[in-house]
Each structure stands twice: as C-alpha cells, then as structure tokens.
Amino acid sequence: MTTFSMLLQGTKRWFIPMKATRQRYTFYSLLVIMSSLWMLIMFLLFGIYSQYLRIDFDKATFAVSALLHPSTYLNKILLGSEQGTLQLWNIRSNKLLYSFPGWGLAVTTLQQAPAVDVVAVGLVSGHIIVHNIKFDETLMKFQQDWGPITAVSFRTDGHPVMAAGSPVGHIALWDLEEKKLMCQMQDAHSTAIAGMTFVPGEPLLITNGADNALRVWIFDGPGGTGRVLRSRMGHSAPPTKIRYHGQNGEQILSAGQDGTLRSFSTVHEKFNKSLGRGSINKKKSKKKGLKLDTMALPPITAFASEVAHQSDWDGIVACHQGYITCTTWNYQKTSMGAHKLRPEEFSKRKPIDIYATAVDITSCGNFAVIGMSTGRVDVYNMQSGIHRGRYGKETAHEGAIRGVAVDGLNQLVITAGSEGLIKFWKFKMKDLVYSTELSSSPSGILLHRDSGILGIAFDDFTISVLDIETRKIVRTFSGHHGQINDMTFSPDGRWLITSSMDCSIKTWDLPSGCLIDCFLVDSAAVSLTMSPTGDFLASAHVDDLGIYLWSNRSLYSLVSLRPLPADYEPSLVTLPSTCPMQDVDVSGDEEPCDEMIEYISPEQLGEQLVTLSLLPESRWKNLLNLDIIKKKNKPREPPKVPKSAPFFIPTLPGLIPRYIPPEEETDTQSKVVNLGILAQKSDFYIHLEEALSTNEYKAPLDLLKSLGPSNIEVELRSLAPEGGGSVEVMLSFLRMIGMMLNKKYNFELAQAYLALFLKLHLKILSSEPKLLEELSKLSMHLEETWIHLQALFNQSLCVLTYMKSALL
Fold this sequence. Notes:
The chain is α+β, with helices and mostly antiparallel strands.
C-alpha cells in the first residue's frame, strides 16, 4: 500500500497449525489451546515464546469440550468431555491425577465457584451440577428448559447467586442458599449467550453473545433482577452499505443484513448510535417483540443522508431489498421516520416484482429522488412525504434504474439505466436535457457535487468519469477482474477509490488518469466511503461484521504518488481480527512501504540559471553601509575615568611650599604604524595567492562565506599594498569574482563583494593597468549576465500577465 495503511500496531503473534481452535484459556503465564483434533497445546506467554506441553486424547473415549484451572490447584487443569467424564491433570509432570465418572451427558462449560474445591459443571441437557472436586461429591443440581448451558458465573459481592446462559439468549439467576430459581432475564441477547462474568466484588455482570453485543448488567433493583448499565453493539449480520454522515468526518452510517441502520463514531465508541430496524408498522412490532416481528422490513440496499434540516425533519432515506417502499430515518431521534415513500398507485397494493433500486437526497435536504426497477424516477418532499412528480412520461428509462444523483445547486438530476443510457433532467421542470449512450450497462453511479464529476461503474468491470458540465467522458479506467462493488471520491475530487469482487481496492488519480495505489484484502469490500476531511477510508467486507478504517498516509508523511506500472503485483493486506490465524507463517518484519525518498536539491540546478547563495541578507546586504552602522553604534562621549589623587602630594623644596605641576606629555615618536610591516597573512590571503597558480577559487570563496560583515571588510582591506597585500592578490580576488559571475553561482555575493572591493580600493584600481584590464572584463561579463537575467524576468512576467488576464 502507498496511499492508505491500516491502523494496526505491531504485536507478537503465534500461528497454530490446526484445522480449528475450539477454546482458549489462560492462567499464570500459559496459554492453553483446545483444538478440534482433540489435543491440548500450551504456550509460554512470557520469556522464550515456545510450546510448553502437548496432550493428545482419543476422540472415542475422551473428546475435550471444556477446560478450567481450579482455584488454588497449582499446576492443575480440569478437563470436561463430550462423553460426560472429567479429568484432572498435572501440566507440570504431564500426568493424569484423577478421573471423574460424570453424569453421562456432554459437558459444555466449567466454572470456578467462590468456594475452594467447588466448580459448576454445565451439561448439554440444561443441567447445572455444583460439584466438589476434592471429595468427588455433588452439592446441588439445577435445571433450565432453554437448552444446553452455554455459560455460568457466580456473584462474589456477598450474594449467593449463580447466573447461567442459554442458546436462546435468556439468563437464569439461581439462589444457592434456597436452591431455587430467583429470577429470569429473558432476551438479554437476541442470540446465544457466548460468555458471562461477574465483576469481582461488584453487582455487575458482563455478557456477550453471538449477536455482536457486549452488555454490562447491574443488580440494584428489587427481586434480584438486573438492568442494562451500558452496552456496546454492532451489526449481527455483515454490513451492506456504509457512508460518512456530515462534514466533520466523525460518524459513519452503516446498513446491515440484519435490517438495522447504525451510526458508528470514529472518535469513541460511546458516541455510537442505533437507529433501529426498519418495520412496516412500528407500533405492532413493539407489541410483538423483536423475535416475533413479522412486520420487519428487508435489509437496506442503498441509502442517502444529508445534515441540512436534519433537526427539523428526517434527513435519511433508504430503499430495501426487493421492496417498493422507501423509508425515512431521523438521525437526531435515532429512529425510523414517519414517512414511507412509494408511488401513489401502489399505496394499497404492493407488487412483488417492482422495487426501489437507487436513492439520493438534494443538498438542501428537502427532496428525495428514488429510482425503481421499472425505470421510473420519482421525487418526494422529505418534510411532508408528498409525491412531487416524476421524470419522463411514464418511465425515465426502459430498463431498471441503476443510479440517481442530484447536483449541488438542484439544477440537474442524472439517472442511469440498465439499457446503457445516462440522462440529464431539469430538476424543477422534469424535462429531459441531454442523453448519452454508454459503452456498457452501468452498475452504479456516484456524483462528486463540488467538482461536478460523475463516476460510472460498468458491468464489464470498467470505470468511467463523466463531466456533467460538458457531458462528456473524460477518463476511463480498467483493471478490475470482478464486479465493481462500490466507489468513493476524495474530498478534493482528485482520487477515485474503487472496490471489486476480485478483492482489490484501487485508487485512481483523475488529473493524471493513472492508477496510484492498489492492494488486496482477504475478503472483497462490498462498500467504501471516504471521510469528508480526507483522513480515513472506511470499508465493509463480505461476511465480516466490522467496519475497517484505513488512514491516509499522504496527510502525515511523504508518499510516492507516481503511476503504478502495468505489470504491478498488488500485495495482500491482512485485516485485523480477533480470531486465530490458521496454517499461516508470517515473519515479524513489516513490508517495506513505498514511501517517497526526500529530494535533496543540488547547489545549482543548471549553469544557465542564476543561483543565489541562500545566506541570510545580514551577511551581505549591509557591506556598503558598515561605516554608517559603526558611526550609529559609536557612543557620543567615551566614559571618563576619574583621576586618582596621590596620597602624598609632591611639593618643591623651599621656605614656601609649592606643588609640583603635572608633566606635559610630548610626542617624541610618530604614531603612524606601517601595517605592511606588522600585518600577518590571513588564510583568505594565502588561498588567493595559491589560486594564482592553481586557478581554484572554491577554498577562498567558502572561507569568505563563513565570515561576518566586519571580518569581510577587514579581509578586503588587507588585500591592498598599504594594508600588507599586493597587486597580484587583488588581481586574484577579481578573478574569483569573474569565476562566480561566469558560473552564475552565489550571484548576490559576487555583487556585494565586488561593490565593497571597489569602494575600498578605487584609487589603487585606477592606477594599476593589470587591475583596470581585469575590471573591464568583469564589466562586460556583468552586463551580459544582467541582460540575460532581465530577459528571463520579462518572459516570466509576460506569461503571468497572460494567465491572469486570459479567459481560460
């Protein structure tokens, strides 16, 4: 993958070579696996990550069906079998310690009681045996009429209560002191109870079932019954269609094969919502209950949502599998809406062979456009549910409607028919504007309203992009080898992401018309949707209850978006799962991702281009104004140090004491210093001298670039003979400037250094013929360079002016 990557963290994994894993159990640092091959395999979870023990059983005599580590039994494990017998094993010495005769019925579950040596044994007949394994004695026996015992748990907060689960979703609570049934919690789950556990020391029971629900029950009411404290639920059947709801990219609407419509939050699970299950008559459905609901609608096959006016009326419309009526839903109330949208002539009778196939909502949220299997397209008002007209005299298309879309301004309605036509209609007048014939029968359409581009999926596994302004096909993509299940646009309309039954997910770049990303998944993606913010791609897959989020890596890292070659072999991406992977050996190394290598720009892109030095302006811009800067920074009056008076004031000898006047200093020696005698040669000076013979000026230039403005002035002053330099070194400096102008490299530095050099040594330059000749060459070269540079400036300005003023 290059564009999208799964939100997975690397962990240590083991892959067990088994046909199926029936049960897993952990205690201490061991993981115990019970397989359908009637063997137990134990692994060390910490340390060496290796197999600890393996025990094989004969299926005919002892087929393991349940396991438990009894409390305080060190290195012991209790096993139950389908034959009804129990065995106690020492896993350290790999020895059978004791065999319990059992009750002649298959053991379904084992659970430790709060009392030591006591366990609860659940049987396939619905019996619960509370047994003392130390003395092999049965303490009490219970029976429930809902089938085999699926789970057992004990309260540990001081109440002698045992809970038992059943395959029909009911929970029975037994009073251990009175040895009788205390109460029942019917329909705790819609399917079998898979597991239950009381929180230690708390009146809380956690249950999960095959209905993909996890519930926490609190026992604080009279009669000992429990109520739901909190729950987490998902679809009990795989999703059929998912779409982002709203513009913040935080909610995903999902329709499942279980007939429910749910909202999943990408921020936190506590924001998840269930909009319920579609029903023909909600009042009758509530009276009959969920399991006996004969009014339930078929699963949703397509839906559309809009946040505009969703607080005023229903903002979601959905069509159901093989059903003519479309339902409205209210996101704010999290329930099915009040309107059922269907043609007026079918209000009393409901034909079996006519059903809704496509739906869309206008951006204002006022109207819904619905396409039928007969080719009919109708418009309904979302607020009142009243029919507002239809497109075409009788039908809009001769074949079934495969897709409908409304533009962002409510001006055009685009419809696609199975006969291979795309038609454009005036939204208000219902008149046909334009019709175009396609190369194949379309299977679905998707409109990106902001950019006005329409994605069309065909039955021949190709995808086309149509511009609704010009009404022409602008892009055609091929590469899928199966039915196109769904497609989605990126928020900016640059990418089109498609999924197919060939288990591939591909990303097409519309401006370049190329495939930029492709990867395979284990099961085909039936639906795709991309976040309005562009950070996540959500996918739903065949026979999978979950919705998977893929992060857009191009938002936070450098990703190569170059076109993929025609012979590109996509890699298989394993979806995250809680189930053990079988017969697979995967190394811990991650697949190297095709990220873009950061481009490092060379110092000079081309010799014909003028290249700057990238030094800050403070290093060269004020070289000509250093004397002004020094005058401004110079203090007005230097600080005066007070003269220290002597302790004994000197006097002249005589009768009248007189002070000795201070001696006046006389200049007996000249203060003019010959710098040429005292000056030492600097590194810059030495490099310039060497360049006279080698003609290599990189070293003196690099040294000069590393100096500050004041040091640069000192170095240039020292080049003159009066500063300790020579005419030859000054000539070498001018040649260095000529080299910089010739290569068009460090162009602004050459101008600044040359200007300062001319300011400091103008008198000497005018009196030396060698220097004058070199200066004339520099002047001609500099003039040619500026003429070339000015031509480039004029060309760029001309193009920019044309682009700004031309009508494109």
